[in-house]
Amino acid sequence: MPAPTLAAFERPITVGIADLSVTNNPSVILTTYSLGSCLGVTLHDPVACVGGMLHLMLPDSSINKEKARSKPAMFADSGVPMLIDHALKLGASLDRMRVCVAGGSQIMDAQGFFNIGKRNYIALVMLLSNRGLEIDVEDIGGSGNRTMSMRLSDGQVKLKISGKPDPVIL
Q1: Among residues 57, 29, 150, 28, which one has the least CA distance to residue 98?
Q2: For the CA atoms of the chain, what is the radius of gyration?
Q3: DSSP structure string for 75-136
Q4: Distance between CA 4 and CA 79 in Å, rounded?
Q5: Which end of the chain is more exposed for a tag (fewer CB within 10 A), N or C?
Q6: How far apart are CA 119 and CA 139, in angstroms?
Q7: DSSP letter assigned to residue 3
Q8: Which of 8-12, 110-114, 153-157 has the highest mean pLDDT?
Q9: pLDDT tens profile 137-165
Q10: For residue 166, what is the DSSP state?
Q11: Which residue out of 30, 38, 133, 157 is catalytically annotated?
Q12: Which domains does the chain have, with CATH numbers?
């Protein structure tokens, strides 16, 4: 009987829309789907082996206070601080965190009237900057959907972009 491969021990966790997950389990692979105008944000501290993923939909929670209370990960201004704080509680350090971002497409808004993807990105950059973080690598804009995965063991972030046959490693 052959020895099991590393993949046999990997544990997939799906991060839903308007949700987040943070872990220090190196066997976890975090994945989120349907990143259109939404943003997928990953944090990874390779020394503490702590990582997290956020799938945010909108930049500002003030548009719906009740929704912000029940689904804080839906909004950049409540979800991003929550993602960072949960990672720090598990032993991550701000000075070691690698930040990857994907999404922010111009979906169903060809004229750019709402610019949700762009507004999400601007809010994210400001919130990260307020905590002393910068985006290390990103794949934003365009008009397609993305699936984003992060392997916690090494922090590798992979994107599957609609219309492209091969995944992209960030």
Answers
A1: 150
A2: 16
A3: BHHHHHHHHHHHHHHTT--GGG-EEEEEE----S-TT-SS-HHHHHHHHHHHHHHHTT---S
A4: 37
A5: N
A6: 15
A7: P
A8: 153-157
A9: 999 998 889 999 999 999 999 999 888 88
A10: S
A11: 38
A12: 13-169 (3.30.1330.200)
Tell me how far apart the alpha carbons of residues 109 and 6 are, in angstroms, rounded to a whole number: 42
The mean pLDDT value for 90-116 works out to 83
CA dihedral 81, 122, 132, 32 (to 10 degrees): 50
Q: Is 38 a catalytic residue?
A: yes
Separation between Cα atoms, residue 93 and residue 156, nearest integer Å: 18
Say if residues 47 and 30 touch (Cβ distance below 8 Å): no
Tell me the pLDDT band of 113, cut-offs 50, 70 and 90: low
pLDDT one-digit tens code per residue, 45-87: 999 999 999 999 999 998 888 888 999 999 999 999 999 999 9
**% of the chain surpassing 70 pLDDT:** 90
Asked whether 100 and 41 are in contact (CB, 8 A), the reply is: yes
The tokens for 22 are 């943070």
